[in-house]
Design a protein that fits this description.
The protein is of the alpha/beta class and 348 residues long. It contains twelve helices and 14 strands. The protein has a seven-stranded mixed beta sheet, sandwiched between helices. A three-stranded parallel beta sheet has the order 13-12-14, covered by helices on one side. One of its GO terms (cellular component) is cytosol.
Length: 348
């Protein structure tokens, strides 16, 4: 597969988040439900903000959630986000998000992207590799979308509640998110679609086909594309996020030869256990990396770096970091003690 350097054109994201989440049975809309001290929508935004070739993210929320969303952006330091007020239906909200690049009434118009990705605010589990596939396919074909195999057989019923017929499951797929479009294709489709589509439609790919004549390239996605829909899904999402966060670490090596060598060995060991490990010499001037990490390992030959660690912890707390665990290991005096013991044995 082509690498991310293949994205030499502007890409933006629209996240519709104006729903009330009735199916969860909770008073709070699911996108604003909090776990690990952070609302679900913030995890989804972070997924896209970490990708360097994504330039901007438009989050579409209900009018009554506008101030809350602005607070979330400020609290968790989201830098690529613009918030706009949504409509009464999903399609009306997505159209509002697309208008932010052409005719925004809420502040400056954003730079128009070549490709726009439409995704659900309550689907935080999408990786860069799959987004790259969707983006490149959208650029080449005009539209692209994630699909998954149907789990259950789909049936049609009569008005009296009896079985009419069933569909052959192998011929059909479930349409999922994300979906990608050439901006001009999907914006034109929304400009042309009917009031019926705005009121009752749910499928963006259908609009691109019907009103722009663009047939989407369909790409089978991983099982992780599922959507938080019911209350039980929130617990599952929290568990997955905890597991995901535990698979990355920031290793603070220091500048001494001994600690650098030990850091290199530890890095290799952790990576052999499928952990993603970033290594930095010190925490100063590495704030951006620290904000993307949840687990921290500091290696030291003395207690001198304890003050640096304390400053790092204070910084992370000020940023409202959503820790599931904070892993801080101190190797104080370890190497120097070992050398001292070896020297004594050699002298005796």
């Amino acid at each position: 597969m082509m690498g991310s350097d293949a994205v030499d054109f502007p890409v933006a994201v629209v996240l519709p988040a104006a729903g009330c989440g009735e199916r969860t049975g909770l008073a709070t809309p699911k996108q604003f439900c909090t776990f690990l001290n952070r609302p679900l929508i913030s995890f989804t935004i972070e997924t896209f903000e970490r990708i360097p070739w994504i330039e901007s993210i438009v989050v579409v929320v209900a009018k009554e959630s506008h101030d809350l969303m602005l607070h979330i952006i400020h609290q968790f330091h989201h830098t690529k986000v613009k918030v706009v007020e949504g409509g009464t239906t999903r399609h009306r909200s997505i159209f509002k998000g697309l208008q932010a690049f052409s005719e925004s009434t809420e502040g400056p118009v954003l730079p128009r992207p070549k490709v726009v990705i439409i995704h659900d605010a309550v689907r935080p589990f999408v990786d860069e590799d799959f987004l790259l596939k969707i983006t490149l396919a959208a650029k080449e074909q005009g539209a692209s979308g994630a699909i998954r195999p149907l789990v259950s057989t789909v049936i049609a019923t009569t008005s009296e509640g009896f079985l009419d017929h069933s569909l052959e499951r192998t011929k059909y797929r479930a349409s999922e998110m994300p979906q990608g479009f050439l901006y001009d294709v999907i914006y034109q489709a929304y400009q042309r679609c009917s009031e019926f589509d705005f009121e009752f439609g749910t499928e963006c790919l259908h609009l691109a086909l019907q009103y722009s004549g663009t047939s989407a390239k369909l790409i089978e996605g991983p099982p992780t594309l599922w959507k938080v829909t019911y209350k039980r899904d929130l617990a599952a999402a929290e568990s997955i996020i905890k597991e995901t966060l535990s698979l990355s670490a920031c290793l603070i090596s220091g500048a001494m030869a001994e600690t650098v060598e030990l850091s290199s060995r530890l890095q290799k060991n952790l990576e052999s256990h499928h952990m993603a490990v970033d290594v930095i010499a010190c925490t100063k001037e590495n704030n951006e990396l620290l904000l993307k990490t949840r687990n921290f390992i500091q290696i030291s030959t003395s207690g001198a770096s304890l003050s640096e660690t304390e400053e790092m912890v204070k910084f992370l707390r000020r940023q409202s970091m959503p820790f599931c665990t904070r892993l801080l290991l101190y190797w104080f005096i370890y190497i120097s003690q070992m050398r001292h013991q070896i020297s004594k044995r050699m002298m005796s």
